Amino acid sequence: MKEDIPRKQKVKFKPSSSKKTDKSWVIKTIIITFTLSAVFNILSSGIMNLVSIWIAVGILLFIIFTGIVFDIIGMAVTTASEAPFHSMATKRVRYADRAIRLIKAKDKVSNFCNDVVGDICGIISGSASAAVVAYILKISPSINGFLLSLVITSLVAALTVGGKAMGKTFAIRRSNTIVYFASNVLTILSIRKK
To answer: What is the pLDDT of residue 65?
Structure first.
C-alpha cells in the first residue's frame, strides 16, 4: 500500500492593503532626514564643544532617550486598534480624531518615528559619544583612548538597544494609551503654532 504523499500546493498571500508606495512621501522622507540630520548634528557637535562634561553626557542621554521615545510611539501607532478611538470620537472625546488619523497613517508615522528620528538619534548619539570621549581625553590624556572609546560606545549601544527593547514591549501592551497621549501632544503643538 502506497503512503499518501501530500501534493505540492501553491500558497498565495494577498497584500494587506492595495495602496501603492507613495513616492512623494519617500522623497519627503529623504529630504526631512537629510535636513534634520544635518541640523541636529551641527547643533550637537557645536554644543558639545562649549559645555562641561556633565552637560555633554546629559545631552548624549537626551539624544538616546529621544530615539527610544520615538521608537515607542512608532511601535504603538503600528499596533494600536482604531475601534476604541472611533467609539471615543462618537462620544466627542477630545483628540480621538487625531488618534484615528495617526493610526490610519501608521506606515508614515512609523517610518518617521522609527526610521527618520530613530536613525538620526542613533547616528548623532554616535558622534556625541565621540565628542564625550574627546572631551575626557582632553581633560585626562593619560587615559587609554581606545578602551575609553570602547566602553562609551558600548554603553551607548547597550542603552539604546535595551531601551528600545523595553520600549517595544511597553508600546505593544499600551499602544492605545500611547497613541492617545501622542495625539494630545500633537494637538497642543498645532494649537500653539497658530
So the answer is: 95
